[in-house]
Target: Crp/Fnr family transcriptional regulator
Amino acid sequence: MKETWIDNFKGLKRLPEDIRAELVAGSKIISVPAGVEIFAPGQTADNLWLLLDGTVKVQQRSETGREVFLYRVHAGESCVLTTACMLAFEDYAAEGTSETAVKAVAIPRRTFDDLVAKSPVFREFVFTAYSRRITDLFTLIDDIVFQRMDVRLASRLLELADADDVVHATHAVLGSELGTAREVISRTLAEFQRRDWVAQSRGEVRLINKDGLGRLVKSAGAQS
Model:
């Protein structure tokens, strides 16, 4: 069996040879630089994207301009919002932006509809990915409603830190990540800095005591 991009996605490896050939022939590989708006509210979902490399950030913007982070799509994943829109024939209600350079497979609606209808393996791949992300979104709602902001910020800093333990994000960006105002982030980071957990500079937060941040996150989990 010839190796193709399909082998990057565990749920598609079981596709029969004829379906694999149809999927490869009916899709295309595309590349997008960082910082490009991939979809926006009101647009039609014409292609299911499967990421081969890079990261796409999905967020929603309110009428007042406030941004709320929903989730990220990483390599080896598909976008649940796109899946939902294609299944329901609805337009996008949120925006997706490439955080890094992105390489992806675009599966057009015709191929998507055909394979969902006739391939149990492809259908299972689509709905399994969909159900997992829905679970993630329920967790997000739970975090927003019930988790303290200091705990959520500590967790997000640990998640976003690079190999040098630096988070490259402004207070406004972190606010949109957590669905809160920039001022709330600023106050919380000031407290973290007072505890010697972080050091701040323009557009960056350096984690200097990851253990302290981790203990805060774990203590909240133990209390829930």
Summary: Residues 37 and 97 are 4 Å apart (CA to CA). Strands lie at 28-32, 37-39, 47-53, 55-61, 67-74, 95-98, 102-108, 166-167, 198-201, 204-207. The helical segments are 17-25, 80-88, 109-118, 120-146, 149-160, 171-178, 182-194, 210-223. The chain is about 45% helix and 25% strand.
